[in-house]
Amino acid sequence: MGYEFNKIIMNVEEIKKCIPHRSPLLLIEAVHELNIDKNIITSKLLTSDEPVFAGHFPNNPIYPGVYYLEAIAQSGAILSHISRSEKGIKDDNLGVLTSVDEVRFRRPGFPGDQIRYSVAIEKMRGPFVWLKGMAYINEEISVECKMSIAISPKKGLFK
Fold first, then answer.
1. Is the per-residue pLDDT at 156 higher than 80?
2. Which of 18, 33, 55, 149 might form a disulfide with 95, Cβ 3.0–4.6 angstroms?
3. Are 29 and 43 contacting, i.e. CB atoms less than 8 angstroms apart?
4. Does the pLDDT value for residue 109 go beyond 70?
5. Between the CA of residue 142 and those of 96, 107, 115, 128, 151, what are the distances in Å?
6. C-alpha distances in angstroms, 153 versus 82, 90, 94, 95, 113?
């Protein structure tokens, strides 16, 4: 028996209120569990009409490894945003990726697979958040990593 994806606490429209990502690079479809300052469970169903499958790879579609990492970062950004909001920190900032470490790709994803992302906050200090993320397909680890994000002002980010 696998994870029950029918419990949804945030849908795509609610996710869009937390992070600025939009299709085709909004890689999270639902939030299933969220524990403030601790962890989040999110998911995405891979369909055969995902734009990325047209080029990766024609006649042998495989979900790109970097998309898993981006989805883990997006999940962490949602958790960070909501955790900060619960502490009364209301801001219009953006979480930007600052490091990715200890990455292991263990199982590829294909059309029809449901990916479950499990992301935990390891540490928060100032504008930095350190995360540990896992992606699962059919209860098998697909990807695991550690990463950090920085909460930065949207305007003037790269000046």
1. no
2. 149
3. yes
4. yes
5. 23, 4, 9, 26, 27
6. 17, 12, 6, 9, 36
pLDDT in tens, 44-96: 999 999 999 999 998 999 999 999 999 999 999 999 999 988 888 776 778 88
CA distance 95 to 154: 9
The amino acid present at 153, given as its one-letter code, is P
**Residue 56 among the catalytic residues:** yes
Residue 155's pLDDT is: 65
Per the DSSP assignment, residues forming a β-bridge with 125 are 128
Q: What would the two tokens of residue 3 be?
A: 């994870």
Q: Name which residue leads in pLDDT, 156 or 137.
A: 137
Cα(9)–Cα(34) distance, integer angstroms = 8
19 alpha carbon, distance to own chain's centre = 10
Q: Which member of 21, 32, 56, 81 is catalytic?
A: 56
CB 134 within 8 A of CB 144: yes
